[in-house]
TrEMBL record:
Domain ABC transmembrane type-1 span(s) in chain numbering: 87-275
UniProt KW DNA damage keyword: no
Species whose genome carries this gene: Kitasatospora purpeofusca
Keyword Iron-sulfur listed: no
SUPFAM superfamilies in the record: MetI-like
Pfam family, one: BPD_transp_1
Family the UniProt entry places it in: Belongs to the binding-protein-dependent transport system permease family.
Protein name in the entry: ABC transporter permease
Length: 284
């Protein structure tokens, strides 16, 4: 019985090696480079720009120059400073909301795995959240709370709860029927101990991939809400709000949208490549 139960402790170490092997592929390194470059630029925004992102100037819609590498917006604000500070705002929201959604979803999945009645209630709650398209969910939350940081945080977290919850629940249902889990139960381990000590460590592999996917989805949600005026309040910059500002000037000043669009694309593509690399590493 002990030999059968051993893989429950050995698998996580092998999983870590598979994650690392996946990240060290071309896709993984490219994704890490894209996300790392954008994130580092956002973190170093005060040092790289030296300008107040909200300070207005006389040069509205000016082209790129030594003083304004990305030009200025329609109010004369430095776009280089606004884009870098917008990256910081976006990442702060996404990196805080996704873990909260993941933790809530995983906690509900563990609850549903322990009680049949809880499983039914949790799955119906997940169905209710998934029944709302992302835009409708964003409109509903903003209608109650108004635009700002908290609605964006709540929408991202709510959107991720059922995804993480169902992912973990599926893994638990598969793993608890494996030989090592059955051996642990026959050996006298309690149901919670089998779940937490043996089943859970072997059911988390898909969650690592889901976390990377969730971060890319979070970029989309924040960008869409800010683009529609449902996100962070002006004048605080976000990539979505800068893109929204640039729409009216695409014909006369197309470079207005270039920098925020490039940063958003780099983040989404980077997180997607990381997710794909992790997925391939896990499947090895």
């Amino acid at each position: 019985m002990t030999a059968l139960a051993a893989p429950a402790r050995a698998l996580p170490a092998r999983a870590r090696n598979r994650y690392l092997a996946g990240l060290l592929t071309g896709r993984g390194l490219t994704g890490l480079a894209l996300v790392g470059t954008v994130a580092l630029a956002g973190l170093l925004a005060p040092l790289l720009t030296g300008q107040d992102p909200d300070a207005q100037g006389p040069l509205a819609l000016a082209g790129p120059s030594a003083a304004h590498p990305f030009g200025t917006d329609d109010l004369g604000r430095d776009l280089f400073s606004r884009v870098l500070h917008g990256i910081t705002t976006d990442l702060a929201l996404i990196l805080s909301a996704v873990p909260v959604g993941a933790l809530a979803g995983c906690s509900l999945a563990l609850l549903s795995a322990t009680h049949r009645w809880a499983d039914t209630a949790v799955q119906r709650a997940f169905d209710l959240v998934l029944a709302f398209p992302g835009l409708i969910l964003a409109l509903a939350v903003t209608a109650v709370l108004g635009p700002g940081r908290w609605p964006v945080f709540i929408v991202i977290a709510l959107a991720e709860i059922p995804l993480f919850g169902r992912q973990l629940r599926s893994g638990i249902l598969v793993q608890r029927e494996r030989e090592y889990a059955l051996a642990a139960r026959v050996g006298g381990a309690s149901r919670p101990r089998v779940l937490l000590r043996h089943v859970l460590p072997n059911a988390v592999d898909p969650l690592i991939v889901q976390a990377a996917v969730a971060l890319s989805v979070g970029v989309f949600i924040e960008g869409a809400m800010s683009f529609l005026g449902l996100g962070v309040r002006p004048p605080e910059p976000t990539l979505g709000s800068i893109l929204s500002q640039s729409v009216g000037y695409l014909a006369t000043r197309p470079t207005f949208a270039a920098a925020p669009l490039a940063a958003t694309t780099a983040l989404v593509l980077g997180f997607t490549l990381i997710a794909e690399a992790l997925n391939r590493g896990i499947r090895r």
